[in-house]
Design brief:
heterodimer; A: 268 residues; mainly alpha; MetI-like fold; B: 299 residues; two-stranded antiparallel ribbon
Amino acid sequence: MRQNGPLALIFHTLFVIFMLAPIVVVCLVAFTPEGYLSLPTHGFSLRWFRAIANYPEFVHAFWISLGLGALSSFVALLFAVPAALAIARYKFRGRDALAALFLSPLMIPHVVLGIAFLRFFTSIGMGGGFPALIIAHVIVVFPFALRLTLAAATGMDRSVEMAAISLGAGGWILFRRVTLPLILPGVISGWALAFIQSFDDLTMTVFLAAPGIETLPVRMFLYVQDNIDPLVTSVSASVIAVTMAALILLDRFYGLDRVLAGKSDTGR
Amino acid sequence: MSAVVDTAPAASADERAARAPWVLTAPALMLFVGVLVIPLTMTVMLSFHDWGQYKGIEPVFILKNWREIATDPYYAEMFWRTFRIALLTTLITAVFGAPEAYILNRMSGRWKSFFLLVILGPLLISVVARTLGWALLFGGNNGLVNKLLMSLGLIGTPLRFMFTETGMVVALAHVMMPFMVLSVWAALQRLDPQIENAALSLGASAPTIIRRIVLPQIVPGVLSGAIIVFSLSASAFATPAIIGGRRLKVAATLAYDEFLNTLNWPLGAAVAILLLVALVLIVVGSNALIERRYAEAFR
């Protein structure tokens, strides 16, 4: 194939600058020694990172997000793994409709989901609670958990299972000792992608996150709506750093293009 | 296809195999009916309820909210703004994202994966952090973007980006760009590089190759990327809320306002349901068109 010409490389450079500029700017402003928004021209300072510690709302929101992401992704997998096995292995009536239903949260705008969940949970008396938040997140991350598990289950070599069956294994033992280990890479990446989705979600969560159970994106959003100061840039810079670390790990172990291809069709 | 032990009589094994998929999907199905289908149905019903400042929500069946949306030009203007912003965002991502995907695809292995990480990585970074970055870049008359544009001599006086549609479109284009690049990238993976080489050996010039060989083959990728970008932009919340401020409303931010500030839930529900229906119609319609036109590309 032909090489990229100089014009193409100039375009590429400008494009990369465009993609990175807002992220770099947030990270730079976070290191400002001044008390107001500015690029650090006279040396770097960690004062705004230290300031996070004096603002417990952000720290609390971080733990809420972490717990919510881990828990909802795990619960989603409890439902998604059996469903993925059924869809991958059996041809049955209504299979396509079921798959479409399970992937439908990708199609529905998150603002609609947020409204629907808010209406539903307040009318059954669960409004403003952490359990409601977990259930809502399970629905939203379910398609991601399902899709990567489904890919693993479809691509799995069934002959190992057949061998186990011929040796007398069945039921739970068969699943626990043979099937699950074989699809585990898909399940773990499904969990990771689901976790990222849950951790990043703002639009749906902002409707359900009552004071005390605000997630980090919700806390950041409400803060930014009131005023933009260096504190929220240092919080953002920390979030960016954590995401980058997770990204590099995910890329090493699984291949980012495969994870993102799972997200591409819609992922909100 | 039975994954069960074969000690039972054949008939009952078959029966179990027929039941197995339903047993396996039942928990997820119950979850989805209980916590997705029912809440969505309740939201549709909510949009027909009455609401008053002092009486709250009244569970009656009236068309008040729908009539208000249909007759008050405020809503027409707001929906028009929402779709205009989404369309512009889609155009920008297509015009810049497609060439970038092509350039990326021609890079050698290590650079390719490095820049793919750089361009797709932002997808996983919190959208609040990314939009905050744009708010900082735009910031007032002496924001960095204005300083840069003025020092390049592209503009004489500073442009307004914050609280304008221009700013929203630029920031949204940044948020949505990875989806377009990814979609075109996927289309390029199906393209056989030997066709390009063949055209080159037959004496075709670079512009001809782009126009006659590359472009026709990546159009399905651009179009499916456009559908994703359009539907995500039309329902975007964080970026319009932060860049647009409290005045410049789009569908998602207006619904949010009705729910959490004005507390007129029935009206907010009607706005949200209308957005959902419009998007489903647009997405399903254009999907059908594309699949008919480019049937072989999706085979």
